[in-house]
Amino acid sequence: MSNSSSISQFLLLALADRRELQLLQFWLFLAISLAALLANGLILSAVACDHHLHTPMGFFLLNLSLTDLGCICTTVPKAMHNSLWNTTTISYRGCAAQAFFFLFFISAEFSLLTIMCYDRYVAICKPLHYGTLLGSRACAHMAAAAWATGFLNSLLHTANTFSLPLCQGNALGQFFCEIPHILKLSCSHSGYFREIGLMVVSAFLVLVCFVFIVFSYVQIFRAVLRIPSQQGRHKAFSTCLPHLAVVSLFSSTAIFANLKSPSISSPSLDLALSLLYSVVPPTLNPFIYSLRNQDLKDALRKMMTGCFSGAIKWLFSGA
Predict the structure, then answer these.
(1) Torsions phi, psi for 176 (to 5 deg)
(2) Regarding predicted confidence, which is higher, 256 or 27?
(3) What confidence tens digit (pLDDT) does each residue in 65-80 have?
(4) Closest residue by Cα to residue 106 from 291, 213, 254
(5) What's the chain's Rg over C-alpha atoms?
(6) Which residues pair with 171 in a beta bridge?
(7) How much is the pLDDT for 3?
(8) Which of 94, 236, 248, 288 is most buried, taking the most CB atoms under 10 A from its CB?
């Protein structure tokens, strides 16, 4: 019987057997990564450089972009490397680091999505108290709490999981190091059930946040329906409904992926669920939460126009 100390590497799931499909997977992940990097990079630059975006929502968008970049950069590059070089291995320490950072960023992201929902609720339902409830100090405290919650949640799960003895081989049925799949290799019943208990607690907290988000959006929709302008109602609904859709997709797939019964587990289902909560939301968030914001679009347009003008002047001055 082997334990975790004798395992030097894990075997990740190969998403395709044929070389052509592996290369197609590489290019697909590359396109997703570049889209996420470009969109989030533009958002970070715009919020940092334009003082008109130094608002609570701009501050939370900046933090959300950081978590989106962290999620994509933690899982996708290794999957691209394995597809390109036709390998499936990841070192034990690399697996532990990947699991820790993925949980860290994904937990912080959901906390930030909850805070951003609260921001919208206060802005629409309690506009007169917006400056008091969401001052600069309050925003900094909420963002710090989101990051601290992510760190603590990730540390507990990762430390507990990677302290378990592993005696069921080293093959993970996933394209990245996901806690439930590592647990399947454990031969410690007490440690296994301790981690399951932690996962149930985390799922309960996610569910509480999701209920809060739904309740907040119900109040927002009630307030929006009282807006006399049809254009105003359409603008509010077109902003809030995509937010709610992404949060619902994110939370439901994450909870189901981590707590589903092993009897209904299959490689294709596990892969689909993991993509739906680990890759899709971080890729879509910039377009749904940020690039639909008119102030942000104006800032991006101004920034890109300034960069273009500066490049033209530099070219002509050099000539």
Answers:
(1) -145, 170
(2) 27
(3) 999 999 999 999 998 8
(4) 254
(5) 22
(6) 11
(7) 47
(8) 236
